[in-house]
Design a protein that fits this description.
The complex is a heterotrimer of chains A (351), B (254) and C (270). Chain B is an alpha/beta fold and 254 residues long. Chain B folds into 2 domains: 113 residues, Periplasmic binding protein-like II (D-Maltodextrin-Binding Protein, domain 2, 3-Layer(aba) Sandwich); 101 residues, D-Maltodextrin-Binding Protein, domain 2 (3-Layer(aba) Sandwich), CATH 3.40.190. Chain B has 9 helices and 9 strands. Chain C is mainly α and 270 residues long. Helix content of chain C is 77%, strand content 0%. The chains are: A alpha+beta (351), B alpha/beta (254), C mainly alpha (270). Chains in contact: A-C, B-C.
Amino acid sequence: MSTLEAQLQLTRGTLELDAAIEARAGETVALVGRNGAGKTTLLLALAGLVALERGRVVLDGDVLDDPSAGIHVVTERRRVGLLFQDYLLFQQMSIVENVAFGLKVKGMRKRDALSAAHVWLERMELAPFADQRPSSLSGGQAQRVALARALAADPKLLLLDEPLAAIDAMARAPLRRSLIAHLDQFEGSRIVVTHDPVEAVLLGDRIVVLEDGRVAQTGTAEELRSRPRSPYVADLFGLNLWRGTSREGLVTLESGLELVVPEAPAGQVLVSVSPRAVALHGEHPEGSPRNTWEGIVASVEPDHDVVRVRLEGVVAVTALVTTAAASELGLVRGARAWAAIKATEIVAYPA
Amino acid sequence: MRGPRMLPVLFAMLFALAACGSEESSGEEGGGATEPSRITVFAAASLTDAFGEIGEVFSEDESVEVEFNFLASSDLATQIIEGAPADVFASADQTNMDNVVAEGLATDPVVFVENRLSIAVRQGNPQSIATLEDLENEDLVVALCNEECPAGRYSLEIIEGAGVTVEPDSLEADVRGVLTRVGLGEADAGLVYATDIAADPEVEAVNIPEDVNVIATYPIAPIEGAPQAASDFVEVVLSETGQGILIDYGFQVP
Amino acid sequence: MSKALIHSRRRSAKPPVAIAALAIVCVLFLLLPLVALVLRAPWGRLAGELAQPEIRSALWLSLRVSLAATFLSLLLGVPLAWILARWDFPGRSFVRGVALLPLVLPPVVGGVALLLVLGRLGLVGGLLEDLFGMRFFGTTAGVVVAETFVALPFLVLIVEAALRALDIRYEDAAATLGAGAWTVFRRVTLPAVLPALGAGAVLAWARALGEFGATITFAGNLPGRTQTIPLAVYVELQRGLDGAIVLSLVLVVISLTVIVAMRDRLVSSL
């Protein structure tokens, strides 16, 4: 089974990477993070293209990298496939020759390699383009060729660096579906780097969040969504996230705002609230409202039949309301509004 | 800088360059009217050392600088015919001088010295070469002057006259070239003027028997239109002082 | 990909007057000597001169030797270019300087230096002669050595530049597909620099073809064995201009043909 267990520590320029990552056979791990977080560097290190300073990379029981033991298996012997962000198809070769490359390198006869490559191209529905040059392909087609090329070489671990980043928005969804289908057929383990949360959720069985070279959080999409541990992860799922101290059901946020959260554990907590749970009012709500505060509308983003409203006040909060509600309340930039959250909709968990 | 303003700068630069060039050429006029401070002597390569000394003597006496151009006589003749600024021509053979005279560029050449040829070998004669026949050995690397230069023609005369077949490995442009080859060790032997061997410590001579050797006669003449100083130079060459110097360097007096 | 960003306007725009004027001066400076050659050529005797055996042997020798020198330059120059472009070792700048030295060295000086090394009494030459009876002076091999010496730097210069300009990630991609260093070089790097290789080879060949100083100093001058066209011109000059001009024209025609045949490919691959 091609299980990957890796601990990677290295410095590259201003980036200090110190992360551990695992992937099991048949599993797709989505690696997310901001630009510069170290995602690509991590992939390069796994492929052996960047040297480790400390750590250990074990794939399928074989030690690929262990600086302390003086072990460094060269890239060409690692059986690690890498799909680069700009595909890097060999321009001087035809499409089918590109796909056959990994096979010919292993010593397969030219004829056999080419016919195997043709099979891959058919799987990608690119057979008609076999003898053309890479420069004649569209972005989506090139991506599929690059994938076929990497898969044809029979890797144990497949790394994909932002596979859909270069695809224009219209083509993305169908391409994503076909990518998922092909990845599912691949028996080894896979790591997909992406900055798109939708992609991360759809592609990844598990998500690893990299921030400033360190793993901030890992888990399934559900786990991350229900308990985000950093602003970046909260942003990924469009959640509100605050820090505070909890005592007997009262959470005092860093900003000073007090929230009533009966179920909150004592001590330092993270507080997560879905935008949908934030109600907006034109004026102070009636009754004895708790978890209410005033703010000024900072931005209004229409999104199909809902509107994402950012309210700035003692804390900044993002609320999701229907378009109808938004116009009824007169929610425009600079307008005043009140936010109210039901205690039951607030999730608090240890920080 | 924009277009119009660049042009004056460009012209200034061109003028400066031209001015530098013209400094060199003052004093080389072959006009004849005013006495120049310098004359140019085109002389066969084998005369390099001897004429160098004669030139020094001449300059001291007449306070006229002498500039030399030492090359194979054939090269010199071609240059003179094509208009090179020579004031005196001293050739290593009659043929080249005749060519220059035929073009009307010189008159009444005078033979001022004779030379003989010799086989040049490296100091110590490592290949133990003793006769012209030894040069037939294919393993030996032999350098000769090419046919166009007098020494080359003389060499062929000698070789044919002796009934020997020599296959040269290189045909040098002038006699000094042959000497250099032998001195460097690239060639085992070469045919050069006896005077050249005397001047070079790296080589020694193997004599050629008188009956097959040639006598090279060297004519000298001022070039048409050259200043008086040119004729003066020829006189010095022909004088006792000049002849004495030439003898010192191994030439023979006619 | 960046070609799409170049505005077509740049190619059809008329050049400013000052630039055009200087360019015209440049062309005249280079063209007039050629014109003089053509005008002064003895057209009537051309066929006769060209038929002479010495001329034909010089031509044949020149072509053979220049091609051999080009081949040698490729064989030795490409690996050096690769090392200079890819491997950062102490003294790299110095090595590059040495590789490019023949470009600035007067060819005769190069010939002298070669004599000191490969001459019969030279550092290595002496050994070569004692052990193998090998000698360069007066041999065609000597001409090849001299021409390679002056032609190599062109190749190294152009190929190193091309290798540096390559996106090294293609080679990384090949490595992830299982290709070892030699395979990567053969199937990814080399095909990518092929245009530059061609341009470098053509320049090296042209340089070798025209070489005079190093050849005559190192290999000597003998018709059929070491007398290449430039040497033949020099010798002809001692007889008079006519033969020299005919030979010069032959060389000019050959060189011009090659350069014009390559058209833009020569410059665009540099």
